[in-house]
Write a structure and sequence with these properties.
This protein is of the alpha/beta class and 317 residues long. The chain contains 12 helices and 8 strands.
């Protein structure tokens, strides 16, 4: 399979290139400048690289890992030029992205698709959670899947209405019991609706902010248990949505949610508005959770499947 496989048509490649422009200039542009003309990896270069990575929200632990692996690979080569050094650094970063079990999906068709496939979506308010759900519904609808959106974020004003707008826009099914109702009951009945109506994909929205981590854990556990009671083995996926523009704060959010529930996949939004795309590396390395989707623009088609090689190649281009 080529680097830019059939999923990455001309428009997708342009969206990815444009969406990562700020990060490329901030992070990899500085790295390219540091590498230029180098034929050895000395302390001065490593110190400069460390500063660039940390400033770009890669995180200290991941930065140290990148530098150590770079040193090891370089030590195996007697002579190295700037092009080779650039290539080694790319391979180190791709390796780190590979260690979280991220697989390059071919398109918006999962290989292990259950019927119905139940996806529980979590994340704090403001990260683009509802928008991501709407964009996912659009992509799966394009693939011929029947989709229902379940409004289990029943506490935030307008949350139910926002999800309904996305359901109407995509012409997919919608299930709600209104505001201030039991989220676990909504989740249970959404799955029941999916089973009764031959739905392929059931995407359930959840509350973005609860008062304490204990409350968060209890609520998410209750929702998951309710779903599993109706359909054993479900939810088949718990997706955490994170806002790339928040940098290290996204890592803190990931810590809280992974402590509260079994997160199985990640979606990173707003990469086009951020120079902090280095946080993708830190999150990937620290949590070992597959990154499935990235948002590279506001358009409904600008939620892309995450391809680690294409991501790194675009950043280094």
């Amino acid at each position: 399979m080529g680097l830019f496989n059939k999923y990455f048509d001309r428009d997708k490649k342009k969206d990815l290139n444009d969406g990562l422009d700020k990060t490329r200039k901030n992070l990899f542009g500085k790295i390219a400048t540091a590498i230029a003309g180098k034929n050895t990896v000395d302390e001065e270069f490593l110190d400069e690289l460390e500063g660039i990575l940390i400033a770009s929200d890669v995180g200290l632990d991941t930065t140290v890992k990148i530098i150590e692996r770079l040193e090891k690979k370089v030590s195996e080569v007697k002579y190295i030029n700037a092009k080779e050094l650039n290539s080694i650094l790319k391979s180190v970063i791709v390796q780190i992205l590979s260690e979280n079990n991220t697989e390059n999906l071919e398109d918006f068709t999962y290989p292990d698709f259950h019927i119905p496939y139940v996806m529980l979506v979590v994340g704090v308010n403001g990260v683009g959670k509802t928008t991501t759900i709407g964009k996912l519904a659009y992509q799966f609808k394009k693939k011929g899947k029947k989709v229902v959106l379940g409004a289990a974020d029943t506490f935030r004003a307008a949350a139910v209405d926002q999800l309904k707008i996305w359901a109407d826009r995509n012409e997919v099914d919608f299930f709600s019991k209104g505001m201030n109702t039991d989220p676990a009951a909504v989740a249970y009945e959404t799955v029941q609706y999916a089973m009764n109506n031959n739905i392929d994909l059931c995407i359930i929205d959840t509350a973005g902010r609860l008062h304490t981590k204990k409350h968060l854990m209890e609520e998410l556990t209750k929702i998951k248990n309710s779903i599993n009671k109706k359909l054993p083995g479900a939810p088949h996926e718990v997706m955490l949505v994170l806002d790339a523009t928040t940098g290290q704060n996204a890592i803190e959010q990931a810590k809280k949610f992974t402590e509260a529930t079994d997160v199985t996949s990640l979606a990173l939004t707003k990469l086009d508005g951020s120079a902090k795309g280095g946080v993708v590396l830190g999150i990937s390395d620290q949590f070992k959770i597959p990154i499935k989707f990235i948002g590279v623009g506001e358009g409904i088609e600008q939620l892309q499947i995450f391809n680690k090689e294409a991501f790194v190649e675009t950043l280094f281009s």
